[in-house]
Automatic annotation (TrEMBL):
Organism: Cyphellophora attinorum
Molecular function via GO: oxidoreductase activity
Protein name from the UniProt record: Salicylate hydroxylase
InterPro entries, A to Z: FAD/NAD-bd_sf, FAD_monoxygenase
Keyword annotations of the record: FAD, Flavoprotein, Oxidoreductase
Gene Ontology BP terms: secondary metabolite biosynthetic process
A Pfam family matched in the record: NAD_binding_8
Taxonomic path: Eukaryota, Fungi, Dikarya, Ascomycota, Pezizomycotina
Amino acid sequence: MATTTVNGDSKPLKVAIVGGGPGGLALALGLQQHDHLEVHVFESKPKLGDIGASVTLSTNALAALKSIAPAMQKVLDKCLTNFGTTDMGPRGPRIYAGGGERCGEYLGRAEFARPVFASHNIHRATFVTELEAELDRTAVHLDSGVRGYTQDDSGVHLELSNGSKETFDALFGADGLRSVVRASMFGSSPSSEPTFTGAVAYRGFVPFADAERALGKERAGEASFMFGPGLLLLGQPADHGRMYNMVTCTTGHERWSHEKWTIPVEPEELRNALSDWGTPGDRWLELINKPGMMKWAIFQSAFLPYFNDGSVALPTH
């Protein structure tokens, strides 16, 4: 059904999207191209934005993004970095040893049976900014947190944090790790909540020129991994080669006690983690101990028994 009909008058179907991150905005971009849909995005923060990390995309994921809407190509042109292809086609990341006597030794490349290596990188903050620029200004409601929803035959009733309610024909929850929509759908059941994996990632960007000086042109110009006991270092160009994305992932953390799942980095933590990595570790520390680095808790999504409740839907795993 393309429209709802009230007293003989046809009206567009009203769709609410909770969450103004990359997923919610990309969905809004895809839906707003259809005249029979009236799209509204509700974001709890006073302005749209995203923590400055990057997303690496496979060939299939990139094709899926482009299929959302013609305007997506314009968005991608401004925030996509291609760093894993050559004249011979896609190739895997460079692999280095980490920790111990062989720390820093080049071990070769990851090889793939098919050319599916994720050779494209999106700068998340730029992606959000460019998506916002393509959306109808009236579609995004900032500083509009959501408490939950109810639904009946007349529609889905969204309760906002200011106490008001609005009714929609459909609702999609794109509100992340601590999803209010998911909590409304499943209640307070622990089985529907994400769990801490024991892994923490220290993430951030540095100017590409700094990475090139510290790591060398060959390594900085491509994706690379360093593996060591309980530790992984990942680096790759981002933001059209202007920046270098750095990820330091550590394991063995018993719990995450912070309310937020991202907090500023304490430099001493990184020094301790890389204490036996010698010169390669020192070069990495020189780069990553900069303002703006964040510590991310890695959570695992709960396995949900279903992803829709009537006219309300959640993203699948």
